[in-house]
Structure formats: structure tokens, C-alpha cells
């Protein structure tokens, strides 16, 4: 049995040994299998510990996303069955354990750093600073699916000399965690602006950092874009509204001081350069499933949304069913299981484009991208009454989303499926002006917010499932209809995930404090609409 957050595997990350820069597998070793470390190598061990939950890995997609978030978001189609709205325990445990593996790695990084002299710490401080950005990104994701989680006291087994009992961690309130992270990220943004890297460590940074390749400006963009995401997430919460509005205005009004991701060239993502290295997306294929499998099939709502608006991303994201005569057909979630099964067995249902998505071993690990940032801007400008800026950000995001999928299409090595034609500028322009998409044809703020929400949903689909689920819950847009499972206590999709059984078993005293809120129907603090 796995002892998870509060009792993270004794000696789990006792860290990195010397390595050869010429050998990728030595540069990025598994820190749980080695005996000595440096700040630089432990930084990489920290990043690699959850890479398969950023890159589209098999375990994450197969045990978790295909039967939970991707269904709740209706980014896929599936056959209805009793119990479908109860998250599988294996998938929930996997994401929980993976996160606390990451956190244990971060605690080990802190431990190694704290063992250095003052001069050694000064030279390496930037490793600690950027590591915290990545940690907070992954922590926000956990808060947004569970609510309260152990954090401030978690992952301390190694630090506490292997003492499990003294390492049991309390669950931190989600609003308190959001405040802590937003405070730190604001300080980090200022710190990075004053940071210079010793020339002797720049090469090491480029080698050890497989996210931004040692580009400090990219880490600044990551930090401020993450701030935008988090500030927007809490924008409807009374206690955060003033802060959300003022800090977003400060970030967007001072691009030099607070740079954000503006173009797809600046996207924060794990790129795949060599599929024979540990950084690859080979697991995507089986994670979604081959052929017509309820993990890569199309849902009716998304197919209709794309088709009715003549969205050129339709051909980038989907392939028609083998016997559909070129038509794009999705599974209706309100149909009977028999009708859904017959449609699928007849080869009528569209599947995700194999060439672009699951057979593409070069598919990047998406963290934050330009279309996402511009859709956040559009939402902020709309609620601030700046219609012209909202329109510009909204239309820019659509064009960038099409370019985003063009780029993924262009790096694919898939032998399955047929490479679709890239979306052209003319197609993007026509789409932006069309019915169901045109900003000018929406006459109220509510209608314009619905446009923004629809474009988020399309852009995220199953590529950014956590952001997709968070925005759907927060905005209640787009409107999704689900079959009611009257044979189960959980009749509709949940609004959060339950804590895994291992955490309940091994951290009982601290779990008791959150037991009453551990329900699938308990809304997150930012889910107020």
C-alpha cells in the first residue's frame, strides 16, 4: 500500500548522483534510485517526477482522464452506464500520489539547497525560485480538483529523518493556499526582475531545465501567466475580487515589468525532441485507446459546435467514423446506451485525429499557452467594461488556437491517420466573422462571456482537461446536458474529487478535519455561480 502525502515513502527522494551531460538518461535520472545530489540535478529530478502527468502519458489518460474529466467536460463521447459519475479510485490515487511525489522532490531540493554555504546558495537561488513557480502550478491543479489538501506540512519525511509520525500533515484551506501562492508569485515576479545568473551556472541551467531551457524571461512569462490564471479563477469570490481586478490590471498594464505569454512561440510546454529519450509522448496512444474506444471518441455537443460554426479546427481535432461517409458524428450523452453502442459499432462515430493527437509521439506537454492567456484577458476586459480590448483578445486567441494546432500537426510523426491541411489565415478570419462566433453579433455581456467560454472549451478539449473542467464549473458555460444515473447516489458529474483511500487510512487524524467536505457534491470555494 502507498503511504501518500503525510508519509511520503521513507527516503523516497534521496536524490541525484553525478551524471554525464552527454547522456540524456544520466542528465535526467530517476532521483529515487540514486544516492547523492546537487541543487542543479535535484531541480531536474523535481521536474521529471511528474513529467508523465504533463506530457500525455498512458497512466494519467487511461486510469484517470478518459473516465473522469474528459467525460465531465464532454470533450469525448462514451456509452452511458450506472456508476459512471463516481471517479475511479485508481485514477484518483495516481494523481494524488504523483503530486506528493513531486512535493517530496521539492522538499528534498529545499533540503539540499539549505545544506549549502551562503555563497553557494546565492549562486543557485534562481533554481529555487523557478522551481516554486512550477510547484505552485501543480498545486493549483490539485486544489482545483480536491479543495483542501496537505501542503505546508506535507512531504517532510526525509526532512524529518524518516519519522512518519511527526510527518503527518494537516489539510490546508484552499482559500489560504490560493492566497499564499498568489502572494509568493507576486514576490517571485519582482525577484526575477532583479535576478542575474552567474555565467558559470547559465549552462547548467540550460541543461537541467527541460521546460524553458534555462530562459529566465520564459520563467517570468510563466510566473505572470500563472498569476493571471489564478487571479481569474477567483475573480467571482467576494474576498478576492478587489485583488483579482487590481493585480490583473497591474500585470496587463506593465508588460515590461510583468511579461506574460503573448504568442505561441512563447508557450510554456515540455517539447519532445527525441522520442527515444525519456521525454516523449508514446503513452498517449494507448492512454486514449486505439480505434473506436471510449477515450478517443467524439461527443455530439463538441462536434455540433464545431460543425455548426464551420470551425476549421474540426479537421485538426477529429476524423470521421470509418463508415460515416465523411460526416462528423458524435455520441449523444442523452441517448440510450443501446443507441450509443449501435452508433459506435456501426463505425459512425468520429474519433480524435490520430495524426494530430494520440499517435503523435511529439505531442508537447502543455502547461500555459498564448490562446489560454488571451482568453483570460478577454474575460477580464469584458467584466471591466473594456469591450474593445475584450474583442481584440478574444479574436487574437481564436487565431492563436488555430496556429497552436497547426504547430502540433506539423511536428507529428504518426503513421496512422492522414495529416490534415493546416488552418489558413483566410479560414481563421472567416470563422471569426461567422455566426455563433462573431463578437459584434453578441449584444450583451452574458452573450459575450458565452462566446469566450465556448472558445475555451474548444481550445482546451482533452488537451488541457484540468483547465477545461475548472472553467466549466466556474462559469457554468457552455451548458452541458447529462444522462441522469438514477441507479446510483451520484446521479450527475461531480464538482470535485474524493480523497483517495490511502490518504484516509494513513492520515486519519488530519483527514477528520475535512471529512464533512469530502463529498463529490461539495463545490470549490471559487465555484460560486
Can you characterise this structure?
The protein is mostly helical and 529 residues long. The protein has a single domain (43-286, 358-497), classed as Serine Threonine Protein Phosphatase 5, Tetratricopeptide repeat, CATH 1.25.40. 47% of the residues lie in helices and 3% in strands. The chain has helices at residues 24-27, 39-48, 58-63, 69-72, 89-114, 118-146, 174-193, 199-208, 216-233, 241-252, 284-288, 300-308, 313-317, 337-345, 370-383, 387-411, 425-432, 445-460, 465-475, 501-506, 508-511; strands at residues 149-150, 171-172, 268-270, 318-319, 351-352, 365-368. The strands form 3 sheets. The chain has a two-stranded antiparallel ribbon with strand order 1-2.
Task: Considering the chains and any ligands shown, give keywords for the structure.
two-stranded antiparallel ribbon, TPR-like_helical_dom_sf, SusD-like_2, SusD-like starch-binding protein associating with outer membrane, 21 helices, 529 residues, globular, Serine Threonine Protein Phosphatase 5, Tetratricopeptide repeat, 6 strands, mainly alpha
What's the layout of helices and strands?
Elements: H1 24-27, H2 39-48, H3 58-63, H4 69-72, H5 89-114, H6 118-146, E1 149-150, E2 171-172, H7 174-193, H8 199-208, H9 216-233, H10 241-252, E3 268-270, H11 284-288, H12 300-308, H13 313-317, E4 318-319, H14 337-345, E5 351-352, E6 365-368, H15 370-383, H16 387-411, H17 425-432, H18 445-460, H19 465-475, H20 501-506, H21 508-511
Antiparallel strand pairs: 1-2, 3-6, 4-5
Helix pairs in contact: 2-5, 2-6, 5-6, 6-7, 6-9, 7-9, 9-10, 9-15, 15-16, 15-18, 16-17, 18-19
Amino acid at each position: 500500500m502507498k503511504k501518500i502525502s503525510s508519509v511520503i515513502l521513507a527516503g523516497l527522494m534521496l536524490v541525484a548522483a553525478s551524471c554525464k551531460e552527454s547522456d540524456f538518461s544520466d542528465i535526467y535520472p530517476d532521483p529515487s534510485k540514486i544516492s547523492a545530489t546537487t541543487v542543479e540535478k535535484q531541480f531536474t529530478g523535481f521536474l521529471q517526477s511528474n513529467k508523465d502527468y504533463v506530457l500525455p502519458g498512458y497512466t494519467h489518460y487511461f486510469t484517470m482522464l478518459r473516465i473522469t474529466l474528459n467525460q465531465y467536460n464532454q470533450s469525448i463521447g462514451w456509452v452511458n452506464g450506472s456508476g459512471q459519475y463516481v471517479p475511479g479510485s485508481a485514477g484518483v490515487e495516481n494523481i494524488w500520489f504523483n503530486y506528493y511525489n513531486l512535493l517530496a522532490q521539492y522538499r528534498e531540493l529545499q533540503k539540499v539547497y539549505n545544506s549549502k554555504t551562503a555563497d553557494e546558495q546565492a549562486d543557485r537561488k534562481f533554481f529555487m525560485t523557478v522551481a516554486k513557480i512550477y510547484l505552485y502550478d501543480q498545486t493549483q491543479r490539485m486544489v482545483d480538483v480536491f479543495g483542501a489538501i496537505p501542503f505546508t506540512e506535507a512531504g517532510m519525511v526525509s526532512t524529518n529523518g524518516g519519522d512518519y509520525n511527526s510527518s503527518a500533515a494537516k489539510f490546508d484551506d484552499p482559500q489560504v493556499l490560493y492566497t499564499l501562492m498568489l502572494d509568493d508569485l507576486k514576490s517571485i515576479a519582482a525577484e526575477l526582475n532583479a535576478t542575474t545568473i552567474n555565467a558559470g551556472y547559465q549552462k547548467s541551467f540550460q541543461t537541467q531545465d527541460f521546460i524553458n531551457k534555462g530562459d529566465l524571461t520564459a520563467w517570468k512569462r510563466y510566473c505572470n501567466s500563472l498569476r493571471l490564471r489564478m487571479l481569474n479563477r477567483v475573480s467571482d469570490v467576494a474576498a478576492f475580487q478587489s485583488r483579482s481586478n487590481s493585480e490583473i490590471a497591474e500585470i496587463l498594464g506593465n508588460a515590461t515589468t510583468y511579461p506574460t505569454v503573448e504568442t505561441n512561440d512563447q508557450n510554456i510546454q515540455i517539447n519532445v525532441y527525441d522520442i527515444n529519450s525519456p521525454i516523449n509522448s508514446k503513452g498517449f496512444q494507448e492512454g486514449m485507446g486505439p480505434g473506436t474506444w471510449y477515450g478517443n471518441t467524439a461527443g455530439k455537443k463538441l462536434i455540433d459546435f464545431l460543425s455548426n460554426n464551420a470551425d476549421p479546427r474540426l479537421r485538426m481535432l477529429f476524423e470521421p467514423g470509418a463508415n460515416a461517409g465523411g460526416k462528423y458524428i458524435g455520441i449523444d450523452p442523452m441517448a440510450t446506451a443501446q443507441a450509443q453502442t449501435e452508433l459506435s459499432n456501426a463505425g459512425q462515430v468520429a474519433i480524435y485525429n490520430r495524426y494530430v493527437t494520440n499517435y503523435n509521439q511529439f505531442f508537447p506537454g502543455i502547461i500555459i499557452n498564448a490562446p489560454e492567456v488571451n482568453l483570460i484577458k478577454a474575460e477580464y476586459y469584458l467584466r471591466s467594461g473594456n469591450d474593445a480590448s475584450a474583442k481584440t483578445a478574444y479574436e487574437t486567441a481564436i487565431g492563436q488556437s488555430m496556429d497552436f494546432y497547426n504547430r502540433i500537426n506539423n511536428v507529428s510523426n504518426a503513421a496512422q491517420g492522414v495529416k490534415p491541411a493546416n488552418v489558413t489565415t483566410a479560414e481563421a478570419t472567416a470563422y471569426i466573422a461567422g455566426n455563433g462566433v462573431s463578437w459584434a453579433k453578441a449584444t450583451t455581456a452574458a452573450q459575450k462571456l458565452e462566446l469566450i467560454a465556448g472558445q475555451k472549451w474548444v481550445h482546451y478539449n482533452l488537451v488541457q482537461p484540468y483547465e477545461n473542467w475548472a472553467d466549466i464549473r466556474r462559469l457554468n458555460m457552455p451548458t452541458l446536458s447529462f444522462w441522469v444515473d438514477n441507479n446510483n447516489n451520484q446521479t450527475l458529474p461531480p464538482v470535485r474529487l474524493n480523497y483517495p483511500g490511502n490518504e484516509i487510512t494513513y492520515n486519519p487524524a488530519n483527514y477528520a478535519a475535512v471529512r464533512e467536505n469530502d463529498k463529490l457534491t461539495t463545490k470549490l470555494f471559487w465555484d460560486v455561480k
